[in-house]
Amino acid sequence: MLKESIGKRSDKVKNTIERGAVRKFAEAIGDPAPIFIDEQAGAASRYKQNIAPPTFPVTFDAGKIDGLDLPSKGLIHGEQIYHYERPLLVGEDVYCWMEVKDYYEKSGNFGEMGFLVVVKKGQSPDGELLFTEERIVIINEAARKGMAV
Amino acid sequence: MNRIVDLQQGDRLPFIQLDPVSRLDLIKYAGASGDFNPIHTIDAEAEAAGLPGIIAHGMWTMGNLAKIFTPHLEEGFIQHYAIRFKGMVFLGDVITLKATVVEKQDKQVTFEVQAANQSDKDVLKGELVFAF
To answer: Which residues form the FAS1-like dehydratase domain (chain A) (predicted)?
Structure first.
């Protein structure tokens, strides 16, 4: 059933990059640098605005993919890949959605493991692609059997 | 401070050693990121999942690792940042962040990036492209 989810996508959701959320995130990763949190430093920077740390898109709502209900247990985060056209700016709106890019299974030491590749994408209001966030989640056999799909 | 544009293949950016991982670090990250999976904050939940104790969010460590580049964001930006999660991070672990130049081109520099624990085992490893 996970294989059947390949190619499915969610509807776009509007996210606004809020100054307070960026500050809280920068502090939580131990990186409260002026370029992220100080308004004057942002205005004086090459970006003319504060920017968000590269892993900030984890906070974005990218909607739900129909039929893709992952178990809350038995998941391992395998890989995470970001690609940017430019940094994200504090205050801008980003329209985000998700797509299932791939699903495959491999035998390993812990039985048959499933690898689910989900991509989150973000666009500007003009439809320009700003970033992609690819996440590879490893799902063990027990967790897959528990999926009531 | 060295500029990234002046670095050569094999050069490293200064290491950053983090304070020992605390529960508060992970509670703050859960709140800021919205990832409230309890194996990162509640002992009983971590143990029920077969872990010896709570573990850091992989994304907490990946978020931290990018700060090696923060002093250079006036020079360019992080265009590509790809990480493989290789080991778990537990409370009290001391993580060291590293970045080494592997390839230099006109418009970008590619780094190998790593986060290693106090036993010098990589918990995260990957590649980062810094673009001018």
So the answer is: 6-132
Residue of B nearest to A44 (CA): B74
Tokens 């968000």 -> residue: A52
Residue of B nearest to A25 (CA): B32
Domain A3-145 falls in which CATH fold? Thiol Ester Dehydrase; Chain A (3.10.129)
> Tens-of-pLDDT digits for all 132 residues of chain B?
789 999 999 999 999 999 999 999 999 999 999 999 999 999 999 999 889 999 999 999 999 999 999 999 999 999 999 999 999 999 999 999 999 999 999 999 999 999 999 999 999 999 999 999
Burial class from Cβ neighbours inside 10 Å (0-12, 13-18, 19+) for residue B49 reads middle
Q: Look up the ipTM and state it.
A: 0.96
Please check whether residue B35 touches A, CB under 8 A.
Answer: yes
For the four alpha carbons of A94, A16, A98 and A59, in that order, the dihedral sign comes to: positive
CATH code for the structural domain at B4-21+58-131: 3.10.129.10
Q: Does B50 touch chain A (CB under 8 A)?
A: no
**What does DSSP say about strands B122-131 and A129-139: parallel, antiparallel, or unpaired?**
unpaired
Could you tell me which residues of chain A have a Cβ less than 8 Å from any Cβ in chain B? 21, 24-25, 27-31, 33, 35-36, 45-46, 51, 53-55, 58-59, 72-73, 76-84, 86-87
